[in-house]
Design goal:
- By secondary structure, the chain is of the alpha+beta class.
- The protein has six helices and eight strands.
- It has two domains: 55 residues, no CATH class; 153 residues, Hotdog Thioesterase (Thiol Ester Dehydrase, Chain A).
- Strands 3, 4, 5, 6, 7 and 8 form a six-stranded antiparallel β-sheet that branches. A two-stranded antiparallel sheet has the order 1-2.
- The protein is globular and about 40 Å long.
- It starts with a strand and ends in a 13-residue tail after the last helix.
Length: 231
């Protein structure tokens, strides 16, 4: 609703305290449009998360199984090039990862210990674009683990082709520190050893460790100190 202020010839709109001239100023209009788009962008993610929790596949799967989530590209997913924004792939991978955590039972174990997943590093590979209203699937699987990190892959698949890949390494962090993969596997009664990591993943893992060490040195900390969330 609009309200008018008598005597000063200006109009205050929507309670934001902007005059008519300010509202129609190019910068102000751009800001309002940007804020509206940002609210729609965030709401889209929350709606997808709610839909996941209400309608997800609740069948339990094995630790090394691949889970599949079907989604569709909506207007709020697109950038000015008319295809799904690069950053959106990371957010959609977050949803698929929550589904994978729940279906394998890892999330339930972590929550009982008041621990939550934290992504340390992520990488993305884009092969084909994803356009408005196109449907696609995200195939999520655990690639392996070491004494500290778990490595997951999310493949974006359309018509049988991989159009993009997101890979992450992450941990579960609680009040008492991080839960090691060994602790989670023990609670799942899994004694399986980690599959061999693909060479590309091992190379990326080493590069991430080197980058973390470099940043710690630049900040004046010891290279062996691991106090930054994940890295």
């Amino acid at each position: 609703m609009r309200r008018f202020v008598e005597g000063d010839g200006c109009e205050l709109c929507f309670g934001y305290g902007k005059t008519r001239s300010e509202l129609y100023d190019g910068a102000a209009v751009s800001t309002e449009i940007g804020n509206s788009l940002l609210r729609a962008y965030r709401m889209n993610l929350w709606l997808r998360l709610i839909a996941l929790m209400l309608f997800r596949d609740r069948r339990r799967v094995d630790l090394l199984a691949t889970t599949r989530m079907r989604l569709r590209a909506w207007p709020t997913d697109l950038d000015f090039n008319g295809h799904v924004n690069n950053g959106r792939y990371l957010m959609l991978a977050d949803l698929a990862r929550i589904d994978w955590f729940l279906r394998t039972g890892i999330m339930q174990i972590a929550l009982r210990r008041r621990a939550f997943p934290v992504v340390g590093d992520a990488m993305a590979k884009f092969r084909r674009d994803l356009r408005l209203f196109q449907s696609f699937e995200i195939h999520s699987r655990l690639l392996g683990w070491d004494e500290r990190w778990g490595f997951l892959e999310h493949r974006f698949v359309r018509d049988g082709r991989v159009i993009g890949v997101v890979a992450i390494r992450g941990v579960f962090r609680g009040r008492d520190g991080q839960l090691s993969p060994g602790q989670l596997l023990s609670a799942l009664e899994q004694s399986t050893a980690s599959p061999p990591l693909p060479e590309w993943l091992s190379t990326w893992h080493r590069s991430s460790e080197e980058l973390s060490a470099m940043l710690r040195l630049e900040e004046g900390r010891h290279a062996g100190k691991q106090d930054d969330a994940s890295v």
